[in-house]
Amino acid sequence: MTALSPLCFPHETPPDSGEAIEVSPGVLWMRLPLPMALDHVNVFAFEDEGGWSIVDTGFDTRKARGIWQKLLDGPLSGAPIARVLVTHHHPDHIGLAGWFQAEHGAELLTTRTSWLTARMLTLDNQPEHVPEAIRFWDRAGMDSAEKARRMSERPFNFADMVAPLPLGYTRLQEGQRLAFGGRDWTVRMGNGHAPEHATLWAEEGDLVIAGDQMIASISPNIGVHATEPEADPLAEWLEACERLSGFARDEQLVLSGHKLPFTGLPARMTQLIKNHHTALERLMEHLALPRTAAQCFPVLFRRAIGPAEYGLALAEAVAHLNHLYQAGRISRALDDDGAWLWQAK
Ligand SMILES: [Zn+2]
Question: Full-prediction pTM beyond 0.90?
Answer without folding.
Answer: yes
